[in-house]
Amino acid sequence: MRAARLITYRQPLEVMTIPDPAPAADGVVVRVLACGVCRSDWHAWSGSDPDVILPMTSGHEYCGEVVSVGARVTRWRVGDRVIAPFILACGRCPDCAQGHQTICADQVVPGFTCDGAFAEYVAVAHADANLTSLPDSIAPDIAAALGCRVTTSWQALVGRAQVQGGDWIAVFGGGGVGISTLLLGKALGARVVIVDTTDDKLNYAKALGADAVVNAATCDAPQAVKDITGGGAHVAIEALGVEATTVSAMRSLRKMGRMVQIGMPAGDHTQMALPMDVLYSGQLSVFGTRGMPSWRYPSLLSLIAGGGIDLSPLVTRKISLNQVSAELAAFDHPTPPGVAVVTDFVS
């Protein structure tokens, strides 16, 4: 099969032919229909993720069709259209039994701890515990974003911050996570402010229904959010993983507000100086989140399939395997609105 392999950090992926994967006894092999290019892939490409051992086939936001099935798999058959979270949990440990698959100690993460989905085929571990049926009404390029950005945003809003209709949400970062949070937040009945430093992303967010936008390069963003929301956001979402936006997100909250850290802190940002006086005096709640447990998929897929949310504006670029490297390198700088999804694996 053709695959885009990370051989050397911060160098173009090498598109090459490698052997097709075989399913583990409790796994399946999926023919990849689409795979998103995510900022987390950039962390792997840049050498910031210690889990990655080279060489590696990157890619973790995928959907596809089952083409082979391990002997112990009971729920899936060849031909099933499926989607999986990027954290593949074991399904057997105490954390999994309590529904906390994202903290499973025996998790497998395609593109980071095993070969991923910038390839024609990908092996999916622990299939019965992780895969979810993909409705025919959801196009593969849209479904690909459900492996990471959309699902992580859904978990942040519903599982961590417990957003209610009428809440103000301040989103720091207008990329894929930020736009996902905007679309999902509006579907939940919340009001959303997008904060970024580039006008094209802010204009795109406004066109997609953001109640307000703030250019952090031209003003005091936390104060602007407080002015817009009448005292501060109920929920702040940090979508970049850097100290400046994390501090601003905390400062944008009203008292008793909730902040969710979605952005992955890496490199120089693994240690941050945070305004703990703001947390203390405001009696804030700060949550971390990473991925989404597979049992939350049905509610999200029902919302999408039922027309409760249109995610099509999220995908702005459909690309081939040969174009992935350029998308990864672009994360070194402000990127265009929307996300790129690989839909062509053969040319």
UniProtKB/TrEMBL annotation:
Metal-binding keyword on record: yes
InterPro entries found in the cross-reference section: ADH-like_C (IPR013149), ADH-like_N (IPR013154), ADH_Zn_CS (IPR002328), ER (IPR020843), GroES-like_sf (IPR011032), NAD(P)-bd_dom_sf (IPR036291), Zn_alcohol_dh (IPR050129)
Pfam family membership, one: ADH_N
Keywords: Metal-binding, Oxidoreductase, Zinc
Protein name: Alcohol dehydrogenase catalytic domain-containing protein
Residue ranges of domain Enoyl reductase (ER) in the record: 10-342
Cofactor: Zn(2+)
Record SMART domains: PKS_ER
SUPFAM superfamilies for this protein: GroES-like, NAD(P)-binding Rossmann-fold domains
Family stated for the protein in its record: Belongs to the zinc-containing alcohol dehydrogenase family.
